[in-house]
Design brief:
This protein is an alpha/beta fold. It has six helices and seven strands. It has one domain: Rossmann fold (3-Layer(aba) Sandwich). A seven-stranded mixed sheet has the order 2-3-4-1-5-7-6. It is globular.
């Protein structure tokens, strides 16, 4: 099983914000495979279950708000005894331009509070991840304000193209491995 944690914030207020590209990825990926999200309150998450190449894929959108995303991971791994080698993380990256994506096999939180929470509850930073660029952040704006800003009308087309590319890249990753995905998409 592949446990794909897609980070964002719940609620309509945040649905089109930069910090929610993880949720946008999850929704678009689920739609592509006709999977439906179900509210799993005991795991503080919405989960869509699908199968790809005979492997179970669970798309998880934590409903804890970004900074507490790891709580949902902890509940799932405790209940299902999930091997964290199956964990894959999808999230926004302010240091990458909108339009760019990047795979990484491990690493620090890079100042991202959602990733920090996942690392805390996973007790490791050794899990594969896909970062989706949302930058560049204007110099005059605080990062907290920038990530909670909605995408502009001018950015919508590039955002959709980027999400589609991220989905194609993730499928390539599933068919291959992190190293080949990095070589092809980073």
């Amino acid at each position: 099983m592949k446990l794909v944690f897609c980070l964002g914030n719940p609620g309509i207020k945040y649905s089109n914000t930069r910090h929610n590209v993880g949720f946008m990825f999850a929704d678009n990926f689920a739609n592509k495979f006709s999977a439906k999200f179900e509210n799993e309150t005991k795991f503080k998450a919405e989960i869509a279950k699908l199968t790809y190449n005979n492997e179970a894929i669970w798309l998880v959108k934590p409903m804890t708000y970004m900074n507490l995303s790891g709580e949902s991971l902890f509940l799932l791994k405790s209940f299902y005894k999930v091997d964290l080698e199956s964990l894959f993380l999808v999230y926004d990256d302010i240091s990458l331009e909108l339009g760019k994506i990047r795979f990484r096999p491990k690493g620090s939180d890079g100042g991202h509070n959602g990733v920090k929470s996942i690392i805390k509850y996973a007790q490791t930073d050794k899990f594969d991840r896909l970062k989706i660029g949302i930058g560049p952040q204007p110099n005059f704006m605080k990062s907290e304000d920038y990530v909670l800003q909605s995408f502009s009308a001018n950015e919508q087309e590039l955002l959709l193209t980027t999400l589609n590319r991220a989905i194609d890249a993730f499928i390539y990753y599933l068919d291959n491995d992190i190293s080949k995905a990095q070589n092809r998409f980073n």
